[in-house]
Design a protein that fits this description.
Elements lengths: L5 E2 L3 E5 L5 H7 L3 H6 L8 H17 L3 E8 L5 E11 L2 E8 L8 H16 L4 E7 L3 H9 L3 E12 L2 E10 L22
Parallel strand pairs: 5-6
Antiparallel strand pairs: 1-2, 2-3, 3-4, 4-5, 6-8, 7-8
Helix pairs in contact: 1-3
């Protein structure tokens, strides 16, 4: 897919690239990012260089993952990184982390709403999944605010630092945003219904 830039009222979402290396390196020194996400720990400059200069651009070129640097429109400050990884026909998983100093301002929620709409209308996605290790209440709050339906807890659903951990899972469908899906959806009937 050709890289795209999206804008919201307060943010610019653009493909992650080499200009983001230093900011990613600095942000990922935060123990909370290392605790709850899959970034390496300790997080070295080489990790940031590989992520921003090689992994993210190649993933865009191969249409397997779309990673965005989320920056403020006014100052250009990095507030988060968010990616959508394809997981199968019409399905993808969203992941994100936010810069410690920028948390609590609604930036990640604003970005996820915009990115979800883009995924459904431009990236041929019909089901967007969110997963987070049980206990990551900040990530869960963002998913809920964006309309994700919490579907349960997957036992041993995540591999984090060589240890299987339980995770929450939720989904967002085009119809949740009043958009038309690519393929029809036939929900299961509840027990006792004809």
């Amino acid at each position: 897919m050709e890289p795209v830039t999206l804008t919201t009222e307060r943010l610019v979402l653009r493909p992650l690239g080499s200009d983001d290396t230093e900011d990613c390196y600095t942000a990922c020194q935060d123990p909370e990012i290392q605790r709850w996400t899959t970034v390496p720990s300790p997080y070295e400059r080489a990790h940031a260089e590989n992520f921003t200069r090689t992994f993210a651009p190649e993933a865009w070129r191969n249409s397997r993952e779309y990673t965005f640097a989320i920056r403020t429109r006014a100052e250009g400050v990095l507030v988060a990184v968010m990616g959508i990884a394809l997981r199968g026909e019409g399905a993808a998983e969203v992941g994100f982390w936010s810069v410690k100093e920028q948390r609590g301002r609604g930036y990640v929620t604003e970005a996820l709403r915009a990115l979800s709409r883009w995924a459904f209308t431009r990236a041929a996605i019909d089901r967007l999944e969110w997963r987070a290790e049980v206990g990551n209440t900040a990530s869960r709050a963002v998913a809920v605010r964006c309309g994700f339906t919490l579907e349960g807890t997957l036992r041993a659903g995540l591999l984090h630092r060589s240890t299987r951990r339980d995770c929450w899972v939720g989904s967002l469908l085009p119809s949740d945003l009043e958009l038309t899906p690519l393929d029809p959806y036939l929900p299961a009937r509840s027990a006792g219904q004809p």
